[in-house]
């Protein structure tokens, strides 16, 4: 027989421990987020559909993005046990300087559309965690303003080449003068990808007040209030910033980009040069022969060519082909700190994350970006400890394999 009794008040008091109320709305929303997926769910609720889909979506049937994420899901670690992993070192040398974590913030266009604090909020978090931040040509804050916001951050600049080379040369000179030490030349945008979510949502830059956006605005009043009461949205490096993203790419950027342009840029830029958008080993070798310090294996987050190669699957053969001539970076599909470590174990020098921090930005501004990095950092530490290594630099291909059967 079970003997029952009434609990004493003192026993109830020890069980009833309500969490203190958090007055700040962003902190209240973010405190229970335990993964990047949680931040994505909050971002989806907090932003208009067209804005969320601009970040979340990819090109055509979005096969490239799904396959990239599936490749990371197939990564299987080989742990070793009975190792002292009470302390681990998450730092990593990236292009000649030590970073606090083995990843950087990827360049993202029109960041102030996701949250009115935009690029300065992201750059300040990069400074806080000692990781590089790459400002996009299609950013909404100037090169100089980002530099002033985060003077101690390591700053990179991502460059598209115009049909007219003069504006690009001006941007390169401004980036150098403002203390940016690395240039990322994007080479996978001869034309804009078919981003069907944006087309169906009628997304324009800046967002237009149509009947649909007016109705959506009623569901997201804070977003619209911030949009209408802060500086007008515009691309800070483009003279014209109206229309769809695809239209602007097709009208402004140069589809005639060749290896001669890589050589020209190598002469014009004294800092580190990374070629972004490499999707084959042969092209990686070609651009390194032309003077690149690193290649960024990338299919543009699946936003350009659908059914493009999976960047993670290119890491090992590219590292083998380049040896110690250049560093190999990788992006697309990274949603967990363990994804970053899988890429590094296969030979990548570091990874770049984009959507992960944008979900945080949409979910809670600067605090959300900080939360995204804290989540990724905790996953990196925990995964290193469970693998049985004391530092990111100890990772080797023997620590991971990509399963072929899921």
TrEMBL record:
Gene3D superfamilies: Aldolase class I. Transmembrane segments: none annotated. InterPro entries: Aldolase_TIM (IPR013785), Alpha-hydoxy_acid_DH_FMN (IPR012133), FMN-dep_DH (IPR000262), FMN_HAD (IPR037396), FMN_hydac_DH_AS (IPR008259). CDD domains: alpha_hydroxyacid_oxid_FMN. It comes from the Bacteria. Signal peptide: none annotated. Pfam families: FMN_dh. The keyword Kinase does not apply. Residues 28-405 form the FMN hydroxy acid dehydrogenase domain. Keywords: Flavoprotein, FMN, Oxidoreductase. The keyword Oxidoreductase applies. Its cofactor is FMN. Belongs to the FMN-dependent alpha-hydroxy acid dehydrogenase family. PANTHER family: 2-HYDROXYACID OXIDASE 1, S -2-HYDROXY-ACID OXIDASE-RELATED. This is Alpha-hydroxy acid oxidase.
